[in-house]
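User: I'll paste a sequence; please echo it back and then give the predicted structure.

Assistant: Echoing your sequence first, then the prediction.
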Amino acid sequence: MNKDDIIFRIGNIRREANLSGRALSLRLNKNDSYINRLESVKDFLPTMEVFLQILEECNCSVEKFFYHNPKSYEKDMEFLSSFDKLTDEKKEALLKLIK
């Protein structure tokens, strides 16, 4: 994942959290244009501390942020949780079915 991908995902989680760039910037105790500059100029990345604050303010886990397909994260985790509860035999049968 490169810098542009990270910035793109920050914008996505911010919008999913229904936060404007200004509102998120202020929640981070930053200049009111901090997030807008991050997303539009793309000339910097936030520090790790600020990045983690962004995730917290947007109610997004680190795991979901870096998941290969964040839009399907909840459904995939629900599936994995259900799959994990199956016996080994049922897991094998399900795997054969989906192949």
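Residues 1-66 form a domain with the 434 Repressor (Amino-terminal Domain) fold (CATH 1.10.260.40). The CA atoms of residues 7 and 39 lie 6 Å apart.
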